[in-house]
Amino acid sequence: MDNYVFDEDTDSTEKVIEDGLESSEEGFMRGYSDEEETDECAECGSAVNEEKRVEKEVDGEKLTFCSESCADEFEENS
Are 46 and 40 in contact (CB under 8 A)? Predict the structure, then answer.
């Protein structure tokens, strides 16, 4: 696997797109999820950090969020 630094290096970003990933964030998430099971934020879709995890019950369903702000935003938009 190739390693890249994502600063201003456009060649590395092009390599990510060539590999079928829409963004470097998607590549990170795919790599992260391949290593271990992780929960996904119900609002933004980001991986949930165990230390910052927020769980709320909404309409009888237990949902997991990556932050309190995502949980609040989800409730506002529901």
Answer: yes
Domain-embedded: residue 1? no
pTM above 0.85, yes or no: no
Q: How far is CA 54 from CA 30, 35, 49, 58, in A?
A: 22, 22, 9, 12
Average pLDDT over residues 67-75: 94
Contacts with 64 (C-beta within 8 Å, 6 or more apart), sequence order:
39, 40, 41, 42, 48, 53, 54, 55
Q: Residue 25 is part of which domain span?
A: 8-37
- The rounded percent of the chain whose pLDDT value lies above 70 is 54
- Amino acid, single-letter form, for residue 32: Y
